[in-house]
Every structure is written in structure tokens, then in C-alpha cells.
Amino acid sequence: MALFRSIATVGGYTMASRLLGFARDVLVAAYLGAGPVADAFFVAFKLPNFFRRLFAEGAFNAAFVPMFAGVVAASGRAAARRFAEDTMAVLLAVLALLVVAAELGMPWLIRAIAPGFVGDPGKFTLAIEFTRLTLPYLLFISLVSLQGGVLNSIDRFAAVAATPVVMNLCLIGALIGLTYLTQTAGHALAWGVALAGAAQFLWLAWACGRAGMGLALPRPRATPEVRRLLRIMMPAAIGSGVVQVNLVVDVVIASLLPTGAVSYLYYADRIYELPLAVIGIAIGTALLPLLARQVRTGAHDAAIATQNRGLEAALLFSLPAAGALIILAEPIISVLFQRGAFGAREVQASAAALTAYALGLPAYVLIKVLTPCFYAREDTATPVKIAIVCVVANTAIALLLLRPLAYVGIALASAAAAWLNTGLLAIALRRSGYFAPDARLKGRIPRMVLASLVMAAALWAALGLVSPWLGAGLAARMTTLAALVGLGLAVFFVAALSIGATSLAEARRLFGAAAPS
User: Fold this and answer.
1) Using CA atoms, how far apart are residues 71 and 90, in angstroms rounded to an integer?
2) Which of 102, 139, 188, 236 is the most exposed place for a label (fewest CB within 10 A)?
3) Which residues of 367-387 are buried (b: 16+ CB within 10 A; e: fewer)?
4) Do 492 and 447 meet the contact criterion of CB atoms below 8 Å apart?
5) Backbone Cα Rg of the chain
């Protein structure tokens, strides 16, 4: 099935990007440490990153991909290319004005997002300099999002999925190659961010041309299609903003706790984000353009079948991943982070947070699969309403659990809110007639759960046998963890085949090579 091949393509490149991201973080820590230069750079990087998540990767994709895929299905590629070109022209004009205004008003902008820097003139000046260097990334990454939407809509996933790899390579290269040519390593990294945006844009411009969808740049015109796109984008932008506010609320609540709470949640988040990105984002990215085409051509039954297979793939990966993270939380944190100032106490604390987050991993992934079902029908409002309810629930549960469970309560609240979000999305889809679990999905879910429990039990038993090696040196811990991961994969695979959670033919498609699409 083409959907599974697309998931493998996106997931494979996402995995490569995340691994490079870990390498980048190690280098950033080595070059910048945790002093004023590091603080200034992280603030500078946060601003374009915030807008990337809020606009380019969230609201824009949610609105543009279904519309573009629909135009391709209804009117052909030439009409779709004209729509994309008009959109790019308007997008470039608006964002250029935004970037220029932000560059001119940077001192006031830094006062707003980092008021604590005002009392430290050196750090405040660095933050202004770094942010002025990184801000053009916002312009480039928004255009990259448009190019990616074009390619994904015509089932060309490989080049788009590789763009984060380009980003990490540019940052690593900037640290290694530019640090000795600039005032500080922070200046080198800031230049690296801007260069990464340009490199990603050129990479996808080449990919679009190769796919026969090279985009020209006409005079900006607010055509009826562009105005409709902007109308659809607004609810999605609000929804993306709600999610970002939710992340800020978690940090604010954690800041009320003793020193270390924010860090424990950060390190745990870094781990569970890996399977979330590789599984959830891969499936959601592959699902949206396919669903949009099926909906636009009136293939209602095919759209529901595609949705069911997406949910099946999501659970087949996320359920065992959640079980493995729960059982192996402490060894994983130990291997990745235990060195220097990060000792055994920090490992145990971060592992507790990771265990709590892992309880919600299947839900986080299902949200990524269910949300495109709304976006494919150009309904960006319903997920926003549900997201607002879940933000309120997350905050309330976190405050309720704060006293008895401290930072672990914050992670548990996030997991509970994710399951609430999943349930509300599924109910809304079912009431609209857009979700009907078929017999295959309903029959396989309990089998997947059982196979995951068998795997978790095997890992728990093995953990007791190899515990002496997990307390040894780094090489021994890495080898032991790799062996445990291999054991978990083998046990789950055998159990899933034995009880009918999947078939050998489907497993070959799911785990097969991610050939470029």
C-alpha cells in the first residue's frame, strides 16, 4: 500500500534528523556551555522556531495541503501550480514586511520575550544580535513549508522529509567551521540558522523542479483562492497558538517547583519526542494529501479505509514504543545523558518523567493521525475547539497533581490531556460520519495491546538479569541497552505475527526500505 511506503519514507528521514539533532545538541553544549552566550542564542532561536511551529508547519500546512491536493485532483497540476505561485508571492510579501519590522524593532522585541536580559547589557546585546541573524529563517522556512506542501500533495515525500537533516547538518557545520571566524560560537550558530533556511529553500526548489512543479514568482495578487486559504488558516493558526501556550503553561507550572524540575521534563521530552516524530508526524504527513484527494473526488469509503489503515499503523508502532519507554526509561536516560553534572539522581528523576509521558505516547500519535481527517475536509475549527478544552484540562490536572507528584504530575497531566484530545477528536469524526472503525481495526487493536504487554513483560524480566551491566561503564550500558531494544523488537514482532496483530506481508510493507517517492 502506497500509504505504508510513504510512512516509511518520512519516518526514516525523520529518524535520521533526530539522531543528527542529538549530535547537534552535544556539540552545542560543548561549544556554548550554559553561560550568557548560550542563553542569548536559545532566546534568539526560540523566536523563529516559535513562528515555524505556529505558522509554517502548523496553520499553513493544515490549510494549504488539502486545497492544493484538491486543485490537483479537480483541475490538474497546471492550475495547482498557479495557485501555489500566487500563494508564494503573497506569502513572501507579507513575511518580508514582518521580518523587516521585527529587525527594526528588535530591542523592544527582546524586552518582551526575555525581560530578564535587560539587567545584563552584554546578554541583552547578544540576544539582539543573534535574533537579527536568525530571523530570516522565518521567511525561508515558510516558503519551504509551501514547497513541501506541493511535493507531499503529489506523493513526493523523500525530499521534504530530508529538510530537517539539511538544517542539522548546517548547524553542525557552522559550529565546526565558523566558530573560529566569528566573535563567539553563538554568532556562528546564529549564522548557521539563517544559512540552514536558505539551504532548505534551495534544496526543495531543486526537488520541485525535478518533480515538474518548479514555482515562478508572479506579482502578489489576493486571488479568491488565496483569500480562501487565508480564511481557512486563521482557525489553524489559533489552534497552533493554543498548543504553544500549553507548552509555556507547563514550564510556568514546573518553575514553581524546586530547581531541576524544568530540566527533568526537558530531558524526558527529548526522548519521547523521537518516537512521536518518527511515527506520528510520518503518518500524519503521508495521510493528509491522500485523504484530501479522496475527499475532493468524493471517495468517502476510500477515505475512511485510509484513515483506518493509518490508525492501525500508528498503534502498531506506538503501543510497543510506549511499553519499551516505560520499562527502559532509566537505562535510556542513563545512556544518553549520564555524564558530568548529570548523575544518578538526575537519571532517576528524568526517568520518572519519561515514564509518565510514555503513558500518553499512543494518544500523542493518534492525534497526529486523526487531525488530518479534519484538515482534509478543510475543517480547521473543530480541532481548535478541542485543543482549547484540552489545554484547560491539562492545566487543571497539572495543578491538581502538583503537590502529591511534583513534576511527574505535570507529565501525567500532559498524557491525560492527550488521551482526552484523542477521544474528543474520534467522537467528533464519528458524529460527522467521517470515522467508522472497520472489523479489521477493531479486531487487531486488542491483539496489538496483548503483543505489547508480552514484549513489556519480556523486557522487565530481562532487565532484572542484566542490571549489573547497566551499572557499569558507558560502553557496557550502551551495549546492554542495544541488546534490550533488539530483544523487545524481536519479541513484539514474533508475538504480533503469532496472534494476528499483523501479517508477514504487511510487516514487509511497513518495515521495508523507504525508497524515494
Assistant:
1) 19
2) 102
3) bbbbbbbbbbbbbbebbbebb
4) no
5) 23
Residue position matching grid coordinates 482526552: 420
The pLDDT assigned to 460 comes to 93
Contact 396, 353 (CB under 8 A): no
pTM here? 0.69
H-only helix segments in 33-162 = 36-51, 61-75, 77-104, 106-113, 121-134, 136-153, 158-161
27-35 long-range Cβ contacts below 8 angstroms, 24+ apart: 27/172, 27/175, 27/176, 28/171, 28/175, 28/189, 31/175, 31/179, 31/185, 31/189, 32/185, 32/186, 32/189
For the stretch 431-481, pLDDT in tens is 888 888 888 989 999 999 999 999 999 999 998 888 788 777 777 888 888
Phi, psi angles (nearest 5°) of residue 153: -70, -20
pLDDT, average across residues 360-383: 84
Separation between Cα atoms, residue 481 and residue 475, nearest integer Å: 10
**In the block, residue with C-alpha cell 530591542:** 107
d(CA 455, CA 498): 13
Report the alpha-carbon distance of residue 321 to residue 181 in Å, rounded: 43
Task: Report pLDDT digits (tens) over 125-154.
Answer: 888 999 899 988 888 888 888 898 888 777
What's at 511, amino acid-wise? F
**How far is residue 6 from each of residues 11, 169, 283, 324, 489, measured CA to CA in Å?**
8, 24, 8, 25, 22
pLDDT digits (tens, 9 = 90+) for 315-356: 988 999 999 999 999 888 888 777 665 677 888 888 999 999
Phi, psi angle pair for 216, to nearest 5°: -85, 175
Question: What distance in Å separates the CA atoms of residue 369 and residue 375, rounded to the nearest whole number?
Answer: 11
CA atoms within 13 A on the CB side of 424: 16
| 178 Cβ contact partners less than 8 Å away, ≥ 6 residues apart | 187, 188, 191, 192
DSSP, res 502: S
CB 434 within 8 A of CB 301: no
Cβ(409)–Cβ(401) below 8 Å: yes
Residue 132 and residue 138: Cα distance in Å, rounded? 11
The C-alpha angle 336, 339, 342, rounded to 5 degrees, equals: 90
Residue 114: count of CB within 10 angstroms of its CB: 22
For residues 78 and 265, give the distance between their C-alpha atoms in angstroms, rounded to a whole number.
48
- C-alpha span between 32 and 36 (Å, rounded): 9
**416, three cell numbers:** 491525560
